[in-house]
Amino acid sequence: KSYPSASKLLLLSTFSGGGLLVYSDSNPLKRTLTADGQQIKKKKVVVLGSGWSGYSFLSYLNNPNYDVQVVSPRNFFLFTPLLPSVTNGTVEARSIVEPIRGLMRKKGFEYTEAECVKIDATNKKIHCRSKDGSSVKETKEFDMDYDILVIAVGAKPNTFNTPGVEENAYFLKEAEDALKIRQTVINCFERASLPELTEEERKKILHFVVVGGGPTGVEFSAELHDFLVEDVAKIYPKVQEFTRITLLEAGNHILNMFDKRITAFAEEKFQRDGIDLKTKNMVVGVTADEISTKEIATGKIVSEPYGMVVWSTGIGIRPVIKEFMHQIGQGQRRVLATDEWLRVEGCDSVYALGDTATINQRRVMEDIAAIFSKADKAETGKLNKKEFKNVVKDICQRYPQVDLYLKKKKLRNIANLLKSANGDDTEVNIETFKQALSEVDTQMKNLPATAQVASQQGKYLAKCFNKMEKCEKKPEGPLRFRGEGRHRFQPFRYRHFGSFAPLGGEQTAAELPGDWVSIGHSSQWLWYSVYASKLVSWRTKSLVVSDWVRRFIFGRDSSSI
Length: 561
Ligand code: FAD
Hints:
The chain has 19 helices and 28 strands. The protein is of the alpha/beta class. It folds into three domains: 25-155 and 317-359 and 449-496, FAD/NAD(P)-binding domain; 165-316 and 497-554, 3-Layer(bba) Sandwich (FAD/NAD(P)-binding domain), CATH 3.50.50.100; 361-446, no CATH class. A seven-stranded mixed beta sheet has the order 9-8-7-4-3-10-22. A hairpin with a 2-residue loop joins strand 26 (499-504) and strand 27. The two termini are 47 Å apart. The structure holds flavin-adenine dinucleotide. Flavin-adenine dinucleotide binds at residues 48-54, 71-74, 80-81, 83-84, 115-116, 152-154, 172-173, 216, 318, 320, 354-356, 449-452, 454.
């Protein structure tokens, strides 16, 4: 317990000779008693965000010595992996959200529904703005101080400043976005079913364009296709022939972060399904009626009419974080940098988790160089196979992103590179290996921006905070890797449990640890069970499972509310 119960107060009062114990702070929740009965002011931990990383941090945090205040414009946690299923009614939006207030009550934390608009790291303050409600249009602004700040605000969709995207395209990031898409898809069908429209007009209205061939864009296209084939064909038989889905991707392939076998399968399946897949095409502008794309090879620009555009090309930094980065000398960087303990570089007592931050790559490369110089045979500049394996093992243990990268097909590439550079593979030239690593630099750069990373980071940080006092008393933690100094905690290590790419038609591609790839109906069942088990409460689990059953029996709901 962080504060004395009535019986403890009575006991203390008796032992103190009947003298009444009075708290100097007006709120006893903000104070705690040490083992020897001394009062100390609790440290105020302000957590920004109630998404994957913030919710995971709060769920695992069990330290009564912290006064925890959560600030987020969203008073619920959103299970984003099922968001594409909300866009066509396979799953209801309410089934994948968990109200944050329940967790707050259970843990004794406080919650404020507001958005942080400025972080003042020098004075340890944040400036917040309340959300405007439906009846209350006025927003309220206020300051909040902190001892420790945990930034878990996620990211915003990245438009790459493409003209017209903000105004005309739909995004798929929040529950509201998915609901808007659902309504718009149905509205398109209702509009296309109006009398006296020309064929061209119907074709335009029913042309759905998805921009971005990453997991979200692909999953949304697949969901939309399923909806058209399984439900729309029955509900709107007269206009079904005019529908078209176009998936645009600037790179050479869709799902390029997945194994090549998955990419190839997905591309073939989409072609078979009649999804118009256009790779090597970059969107250069979106107007209210047309989307313009540039063919990368030829530079040719083509404009096409559309009914709805869904933009899913990755994530960018939120303005509040951008401003904060300028303040702390990280203005030149693209993403907020932390060290391996998730502490924001360049300021004190601020941590950052999830999509909003990245572990500093410079440090990774420096450390890799240090491992090499430790193992370096200065005279020969070469390592034998055993030494090479040890170096790689060492790097992989410290840097999960490198581990992930090397484990996935790339180790083969590096081995080939070395072979071609050295002529043989019995001895490894250190310089060549370093070059090979820098060639794969972009892929190694960041941990993927996924819920898996975010929730593991939240759990890691909460566990550090739970042990903080014990470790402060006994600071000799594990040897810190970079030579001098020790750190109280092991650095954050990411464990990859695999990824899924639902491809529609009850087929999913799964890439699991150990280079194991499975595609098809069996993986779809694995997907159902993994996602059902990962939902954060029994309430959401039962709602989602009943939504799936409802869809199997009755089909999707096509009302536009
Ligand atoms: P978020 O979960 O986005 O949470 C950010 C929180 O911060 C929110 O509560 C938000 O309201 C709050 N916030 C925003 N601005 C402020 C502010 N100024 N002040 C205070 N609070 C603020 N990942 C997977 O691993 N597997 C998947 O299958 C998968 N599917 C996805 C499908 C979709 C459609 C999307 C959009 C993402 C998917 N992801 C998936 C990625 C995953 O959702 C993100 O990586 C994850 O949400 C990142 O967690 P986070 O805590 O950093 O941010």
